[in-house]
């Protein structure tokens, strides 16, 4: 066991430094995202979702860097990543609408001008909607119509349609 630590001492030290740095970066990014969420009056559940996305991304980056620390060559990683991305590409093509909704949810976190409780009008020629935003989720908005019906509206469509603010914070009537 002692020879193991002697033989791999630089790799162990570099790994500890990598995880320490990524832990600090993750902590700082979480604080920044929470401040943006608080300043923009975004629901805590949405903030947690974006934090989770950032954490997963940092973990994937850590695995990539760790493979270099442990001695993987670029040629080896190219073969692995090209194989993985070929399979993922086929799988993700099949579920592209889900990914576009998740991406739209992330975009909406940082730049969506409407909040939960606002009454909005979606200008869709086939299905115009005037409703109160009840919840903003990773895949869709939950909209409450005046008659009480709940409509789920995909995030990617809300970014493609014209939207008008009818009443700010309609819950506070």
Q: What is the CA-based Rg, rounded?
A: 22 Å
Number of helices: 6
Overall mean confidence score, pLDDT = 86
Described by strand count, sense and barrel closure, the largest sheet is: 5 strands, antiparallel
The residue ranges in which pLDDT falls below 50 over 5 or more consecutive positions are none
Indicate the percent of residues in helices. Answer: 55-70%
Task: Give the tally of β-strands.
Answer: 5
Please list the strands of the largest sheet in the order they lie side by side: 4-3-2-1-5
- Identify the overall geometry: elongated
How much β-strand is present in the residues? Answer: 15-25%
The assigned structural class equals alpha+beta
The succession of helices and strands, N to C, reads: HHHHHEEEEHE
Number of domains: 2
Describe, in plain words, how this protein is organized in 3D.
By secondary structure, the chain is α+β, with helices and mostly antiparallel strands. It has 2 domains: 2-94; 113-172, SH3 type barrels, CATH 2.30.30.520. It is built from 6 helices and 5 strands. It has a 5-stranded antiparallel sheet with strand order 4-3-2-1-5. A hairpin with a 3-residue loop joins strand 2 (129-136) and strand 3 (140-145). The longest helix has 31 residues, at 9-39. The protein is elongated, with a radius of gyration of 22 Å. The termini are far apart.
Secondary-structure topology with pairs:
Elements: H1 2-7, H2 9-39, H3 44-69, H4 74-94, H5 96-111, E1 119-123, E2 129-136, E3 140-145, E4 150-154, H6 155-158, E5 162-167
Antiparallel strand pairs: 1-2, 1-5, 2-3, 3-4
């Amino acid at each position: 066991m002692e020879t193991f630590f002697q033989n791999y001492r630089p790799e162990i030290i570099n790994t500890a430094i990598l995880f320490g740095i990524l832990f600090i970066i993750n902590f700082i990014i979480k604080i920044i995202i929470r401040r943006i969420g608080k300043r923009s009056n975004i629901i805590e559940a949405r903030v947690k979702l974006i934090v989770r996305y950032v954490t997963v991304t940092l973990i994937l980056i850590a695995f990539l860097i760790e493979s270099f620390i442990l001695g993987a060559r670029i040629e080896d990683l190219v073969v692995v990543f090209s194989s993985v991305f070929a399979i993922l590409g086929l799988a993700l093509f099949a579920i592209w609408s889900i990914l576009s909704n998740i991406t739209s949810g992330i975009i909406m976190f940082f730049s969506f001008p409407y909040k939960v409780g606002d009454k909005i009008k979606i200008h869709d020629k086939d299905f115009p909607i005037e409703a109160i935003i009840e919840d903003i989720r990773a895949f869709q908005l939950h909209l409450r119509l005046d008659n009480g019906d709940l409509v789920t509206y995909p995030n990617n469509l809300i970014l493609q349609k014209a939207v008008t603010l009818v009443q700010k914070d309609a819950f506070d009537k």
